[in-house]
Amino acid sequence: MVQGSTNLNTELTQEWLQNYVDDWVRFYRKHTVDGELASYIPQLTKADPNALGVIIMGNNGMTIKSGDVDATFSIQSISKVFAFIVACMDRGVSYVLNRVDVEPTGHAFNSIIHLEMRKIEKPFNPLINAGAITVTSMLQGRTSDEKLEGIFQLLEKILGRRPELDVDVYESERESSIRNRGIGYFLLEAGVLESDLGITLETYFKQCSIKITVEDLAKLGLILANDGMDKTTGEEIIPRQIARLAKVLMLTCGMYDASGKFAAYVGVPAKSGVAGGIMASVPPRIREEVLPFMDGCGVGVYGPALDEQGNSVAGTRLLRHIASHWDFSIF
Ligand code: DON
């Protein structure tokens, strides 16, 4: 495998960077065998377990695409970031943070343990299921479709098209939702839900089932890297304070109980989903040497074989490799 950090000053051409990424994707595709497809949602087992793709979309206009970039898959937990953003935009940041905290848990994304062990006033953070379901209950609207509208509108603004719902995934999600319903009842008992539990859960299942591509993830990651601004039009799509808060949550909680390791070894805000997507935001960096994507970039990854924490196994390793060779870390 090529180890790409030599001659960066002189050779940052698209072709040169493309060759590196192609080589790295080829190498890390072999790591997909170390993971497994999420089987607790039966529809997700239909994915190709050996798939791996990445798109890096830079502020400098350069885009590198490699591997299985044509796949469509469900957004899953990555939607939690956008539900949080929409809730903050609609209700205000303090309203939302009065009802859900910003603390990492160190537990699995769908853990119930802290709901039972510690009498909660509010869930730990908006990116674990308990916090995400609470955030979803704050979305405006009476029906699940009305509540979803804000998320769809935000995604449409960023992606330039309205994404669709994957109805098969939604139904599969709904039919295999015992744990999420359990979490919902704990939240109902704690009195933190702002909407009817049934409607809130329907909204949550639908938001997780929105169909996206690797390119969508790169675009979404890029907007967040730019603190909510679409640099091509100069439009602020997400208020800066909210975009920055979303990135804090991605960094501290976005990869669940692997968030500490991801921060240490990759060093950028990122969010994963159980269908195998990862969205990462690399802000502009200042370094003495010239490095790829110094003006910032969004990275979308797809690799549906997951590790024990529910993160793409090969996708995480690929991101770690790219980030360390091209010095993406924000630290
Ligand atoms: O709540 C669930 O089970 C899923 N629909 C979303 C979980 C998810 O993506 C966790 N991520 N790694």
TrEMBL record:
<dbReference type="GO" id="GO:0004359">
    <property type="term" value="F:glutaminase activity"/>
</dbReference>
<feature type="binding site">
    <location>
        <position position="77"/>
    </location>
    <ligand>
        <name>substrate</name>
    </ligand>
</feature>
<feature type="binding site">
    <location>
        <position position="129"/>
    </location>
    <ligand>
        <name>substrate</name>
    </ligand>
</feature>
<keyword id="KW-0007">Acetylation</keyword>
<dbReference type="Pfam" id="PF04960">
    <property type="entry name" value="Glutaminase"/>
</dbReference>
<dbReference type="InterPro" id="IPR012338">
    <property type="entry name" value="Beta-lactam/transpept-like"/>
</dbReference>
<feature type="binding site">
    <location>
        <position position="204"/>
    </location>
    <ligand>
        <name>substrate</name>
    </ligand>
</feature>
<feature type="binding site">
    <location>
        <position position="256"/>
    </location>
    <ligand>
        <name>substrate</name>
    </ligand>
</feature>
<keyword id="KW-0378">Hydrolase</keyword>
<comment type="subunit">
    <text>Homotetramer.</text>
</comment>
<feature type="binding site">
    <location>
        <position position="173"/>
    </location>
    <ligand>
        <name>substrate</name>
    </ligand>
</feature>
<dbReference type="InterPro" id="IPR015868">
    <property type="entry name" value="Glutaminase"/>
</dbReference>
<protein>
    <recommendedName>
        <fullName>Glutaminase</fullName>
        <ecNumber>3.5.1.2</ecNumber>
    </recommendedName>
</protein>
<feature type="binding site">
    <location>
        <position position="180"/>
    </location>
    <ligand>
        <name>substrate</name>
    </ligand>
</feature>
<comment type="similarity">
    <text>Belongs to the glutaminase family.</text>
</comment>
<feature type="binding site">
    <location>
        <position position="274"/>
    </location>
    <ligand>
        <name>substrate</name>
    </ligand>
</feature>
